[in-house]
Amino acid sequence: MMQVFRSLRNSALFVASFCVLLVLPAHAQDWVHIGSNIPTDTQRIRLAAADMKPVGNDPQTPVLKATFDTTLFHDLSNAGIFDMVAKSMAPPVTPGSPQEINLAQWSAAPASAAFVAYGALSSTGGRLVVYGWLQDDRNAGSPPILTKQYSGDATDDQARTLAHQFADDIIAALGGGVRGIAETKIYFVSARGGSKQIWEMDYDGENQHQVVRAGILSLSPRISPDSSRLAFASLGREGWSIRMYSFDLGRLVAFPPGTVGGSNLSPAWSSDGNHIAFSSSRSGDPDIWTCDTNGGNLKKLTAFRGPDVSPVWNPRTNAQIAWVSGRTGLPQIYIMDTDGGNVERMTDGGYAISPSWSPNGQFLAFSWNRKYGPGAPGGQDIYVMDIASLRWLQLTHDSGSNDFPSWSPDGRHLVFERSSNGHTSIWTMLADGTQQQQLTQTGKDFMPNWSWK
Amino acid sequence: MISRKTLTLSLVLIASFAVVAGCKKKPVPQTATAPAATTPAPTAQLTATPETITAGDQVVLSWKTMDADSVSIDGIGSVPSSGVKTVTPTTTTTYHLTARGDGGSTDATATVTVNPAQAAVAVPENNQPMTAEQMFKANVQDIFFDYDSYDVRTGDEAVLSKAAAFLAAHPEIKVLIGGYCDERGSNEYNLALGENRANAAKKLLVQDGVSPNRLRVVSYGKERPFCTESTESCWQQNRRAGFSIDGTTGN
Question: Rounded to the nearest 5°, which phi and psi values hold at A12?
Fold first, then answer.
């Protein structure tokens, strides 16, 4: 009897402590949700995306419509701010204009949508035209929030592009004015062609292709804020140099400060596009250097013995740089002013690498193995840290080795590299660690970098 | 003399451990119905790198065990469950590791063949003259580093002095020093670390009189591994400053 009582009491204690554990993470994540502008599950906007109504009888229309519908639904689901109405819950009639929509049907159960996106799609004479509307279901009398026409060539690629544009307009309208990321690109390293080279893809993993082939191998792609140039590190016969590729010219262009002797690694753009930070060992030890984009005004910011690498600018101010330093042993994340002063260590131990600064300047995302050491089976995971308070949240758990987080321009998403069982792939997730998705499948893809727009 | 005493002592220790282990094991038959899987036998790995040396050179012993309560290496004594240690055997030696745990004990051995010390420049035993490449390899040997470290190990200063002497005798040879890292950690950080490793080797060669103009440093980080398994002995192979002929002056 006594024993039963004791075990009951123990299990009550166990349940109580479990409840505490359950409650704590929810609170702990609030600062991440607020800072990254991600609503909690209960705050998400209930949104329906109707299939487009096909107009005309061009044989291409059904194919393009299918691509458009799939892409739009995926973009909106992926945005991190919507509770999407499943397609199966849509009312039977597909609306193609404000005259045809019955908002009461969409706001009623089972759809229960607060807003509905809909429209018409036609393909004629090789042109694809989409009319898109967004409407508040609960204010039937008010005009549509969004009325817009999108057009392009009648190709599958353009159908995806137009869907991305419509999605980003909807997200901007309902997501507090922050534009979506459906039209952004991700740059990465892939060894699928033999040697590691720089590749590009759409934010959803579509349209993967090589950008440039340079040197024996290339790493660390960083796209410029205006998307016109790509800086990266390339291994040539004489060692590592920072190279610069121009999308406007379709070729490599000169970047003299990146080719001086010693290893030149890990370039980073300031958000105004005027400056580059990078690691160089031209003075005998890998240190952080900065210069103007045209190569002038070269400055060395660090002077400690040991590796200094992977700088990133505070994109809100461009007055601070976060980077990785091995000055006290295992690599840690540090922050300093752009004149090299006010050095502050951010991580309290372990093996911390690959910082990425959130667009609003508030957070650092980085890769951290908090139990690194010989015989210590710690995981290399992605963390997000609030810079002002130094509190952090682990975003990946028990899923291989994770590295190179990079923020999306809306500050709600991260792209990162995940390696497990000898296969390395590019993944994305929301900044709270949810909605993890694999984008590449070759097993040989590394070091992603999200475009600025 | 001292080392022999230590050896005897550790043998005594091992013997007494064995007795204790024997005592503990006696009750086992009484609970023979208990599944054996609850206490797995320890696993043990021991490797020596390189396996063949010239007297006076260093060898890196690295070991890894699981499910062991006590681990010892004859002649060294009690050691952590996994680790790395540099030794300088003067004669051919077999290192014997014993890992003991609740599930029993497991042994692992690694043999290092020690050749007698030779003249500064190796002479091949047959009458075929060595190629320049072979002479270089025999005299300018790669050095290895502890994890996340770019400090040259104490014994490796002698390896680099030997290399410097060879380079002094062959002033036409230019050298490429590659910095290498194991697979753990980030590509970017490892490139910087590899740079530090190669530069640490370069600095000592320059101190030993080699002109810096003959030495070129390239960090390969973890991009060019010598060994691709995820084991400590493989990682040790990859944490190195590697030397190769980078052409000759006058070319």
Answer: -60, -45
Q: Is A150 exposed, middle or buried (0-12, 13-18, 19+ CB in 10 A)?
A: buried
Is the pLDDT confidence value at A65 over 80? yes
With tokens 């019955």, the residue in question is A102
**Any idea how long chain B is?**
251
Which two tokens mark B21? 């282990």
Distances (CA, A) of B82 to B65, B78, B108: 6, 11, 13
**Residue in this structure with the two tokens 């507090």, named with its chain if needed:** A176
Q: B48: domain range?
A: 2-115
Smallest CA–CA distance, residue B232 to chain A, in Å, is 8
Out of B82, B185, B199, the one facing A374 most closely (by C-beta) is: B82
User: A218 contacts in B (CB within 8 Å)?
Assistant: none
Length of chain A: 453
Q: From B202, which residue of chain A is nearest by alpha-carbon distance?
A: A284
Q: What token pair was written down for A75?
A: 């973009």
Give the containing element (helix H, strand E) for A23: helix A2-35
Q: Which residues of A touch B (CB under 8 A)?
A: 196, 217, 219-220, 233, 235, 238-240, 262-263, 265-266, 279, 281, 284-286, 306-310, 324, 326, 329-331, 351, 353-354, 367, 369, 372, 374-375, 380, 403-404, 446-447
Q: Report residue A97 as tokens.
A: 């204009």
> In this structure, which amino acid lies at residue A63?
V
Q: What is the DSSP track for A389-423?
A: T--EEE---SSSEEEEEEE-TTSSEEEEEEEETTE
CA–CA separation, A179 and A182 (whole Å): 9
pLDDT of residue B38: 63
Residue B81's CATH number: 2.60.40.10
pLDDT digits (tens, 9 = 90+) for B100-147: 888 888 888 888 877 766 544 445 456 677 888 899 999 999 999 999
- A279, A264 contact by CB (below 8 A): yes
Taking the CA atoms of A216, A217, A221 and A223 in sequence, report the sign of the dihedral they define: positive
Instruction: State whether A375 and B218 contact (CB < 8 Å).
Output: no
Nearest CB to A281: which of B82, B195, B220? Answer: B195
Quote ipTM for the complex.
Answer: 0.89
Tell me the CB-side half-sphere exposure of residue B81, using CA atoms within 13 A.
13
Q: How far apart are CA A242 and CA A257, in angstroms?
A: 8
Residue B176 lies in a domain: yes
Domains of chain A: 41-174 (3.40.50.10070), 185-450 (2.120.10.30)
Q: What is the dihedral of CA B199, B205, B209, B212, to 10 degrees?
A: -30
